Amino acid sequence: MRLILLGAPGAGKGTQAAALAEYFGVPHISSGARLRRHVADGTKLGRKVAHYLERGELVPDDLVMAVVDEALARAGTGYILEGFPRTMSQARAAEARHGGGLADAVVFLDLPDDVARQRIAQRMAAGRPDDRDREVVERRLRTFHAETRPVVDYYRDRGLLVTVDASQPLDTVTAAILTALAGITPH
Ligand code: AMP
Predict the structure, then answer these.
(1) Does domain 2-30+77-181 have CATH number 3.40.50.300?
(2) What is the rounded average pLDDT of the residues 19-44?
(3) Which of 2, 21, 65, 130 would bridge with 28, disulfide CB 3.0–4.6 Å?
(4) What is the mean pLDDT of the chain?
(5) Is the C-beta atom of 140 inside 6 A of ligand 1?
(6) Residue with the nearest Cα to atom 6 of ligand 1?
(7) Distance from the alpha carbon of residue 32 to the mean position of ligand 1, in angstroms
(8) What's the pLDDT band for 42 if we cut at 50, 70, 90?
(9) Contact 107, 12 (CB under 8 A)
(10) What are the phi and psi torsion angles at 127 (to 5°)?
(11) Which residue ranges make up each domain of the chain?
């Protein structure tokens, strides 16, 4: 199974991607987690991307594509790709590189902004620096609407989109995703 998981900050992308990766027995590829790992390890790429993550701005396409391409090459035929593509240019570039398409289905975790704000405030103590600053959170939400919403629409137009109400409890969201995916034939 090859899935893309998209959603606003606070929608539970990381948690749902981990659950789906376990269910389908495929790797979980999170662009955000991989970028954070580079920052924590102080790699050359990590030093280039750190200030974008701190400010809640999108990392330039070429840098994020390098990280994702490497992970996809290693993953092989199945994966849960979380948080990528985040812009139309990333979607087009990734599709061009992966001729037959990047995913069997695209799961959109739909969440009202107010619930996203509450969720992020609740998980703040757990520790992501970009969850702590209200201005950074607002920038991430704005960026989601401006840059990633068109990607959601693009996959909807291509008949690949599965939309799930992400304001439900986590287990209910996982179950709803699996029900919605039941009719999908994996690659
Ligand atoms: P996330 O863990 O998905 O919330 O991503 C955290 C941060 O990593 C984002 O605010 C961006 O700075 C960066 N990031 C993650 N994925 C992408 C992407 N596909 N394109 C650009 N920046 C990204």
Answers:
(1) yes
(2) 96
(3) 21
(4) 93
(5) yes
(6) 32
(7) 4
(8) very high
(9) no
(10) 120, 5
(11) 2-30+77-181
Compute the distance between CA of residue 168 and CA of residue 149 in angstroms, rounded to an integer.
21
Q: Ligand 1, closest atom to CA 60? A: 21
Residue 76 pLDDT = 81
Going by C-alpha positions, the residue among 65, 162, 187, 158 that lies closest to residue 110 is 162
Token readout for 37 is 């790992």
For ligand 1, the distance from its centroid to the CA atom of residue 83, given in whole angstroms, is 7
Q: Which atom of ligand 1 is nearest to the CA of 68?
A: 19
Rounded to an integer, what distance in angstroms lies between the CA atom of residue 27 and that of residue 1? 10
pLDDT band at 107 (very low <50, low <70, confident <90, very high): very high
* For the CA of 56, the nearest atom of ligand 1: 10
52 lines ligand 1 (CB under 6 A): yes
**Nearest partner of 36 among 76, 67, 6, 79, judged by Cα:** 67
Burial status of residue 108 (CB atoms within 10 A of its CB: 0-12, 13-18, 19 or more):
buried
Q: Are 130 and 36 in contact (CB under 8 A)?
A: no
| Pocket perturbation via mutation, ligand 1, pick of 53, 62, 149 by most ligand atoms within 8 A of CB | 53
Whose CA is closest to 5, among 102, 101, 107?
Answer: 107
